[in-house]
Design a protein that fits this description.
By secondary structure, the chain is α+β, with helices and mostly antiparallel strands. 28% of the residues lie in helices and 38% in strands. It has one domain.
Amino acid sequence: MQKATKLRIVIKRDGKEKANIKLPIYSLKHIETLMPDVALVKLKERNIDLESIVKKVKDSDYRPQTLFEINDPKKSYRVWIE
């Protein structure tokens, strides 16, 4: 199995892609500081725990996977490793 080497973040607003970010996998350690405050609030509202997600990734030996997705009427976020 190949380990993920990139952290990917895609943000869409009104269905249009506004950001498509590729970062080295080690950026996962700092994911909370990379995200806007509004996104962190949305995660907390949905009981999405970034610390648990990072632990799950480490436990999986960095297997490629979706970390989380948030879909709101106006804005969506998708974060995964590949």
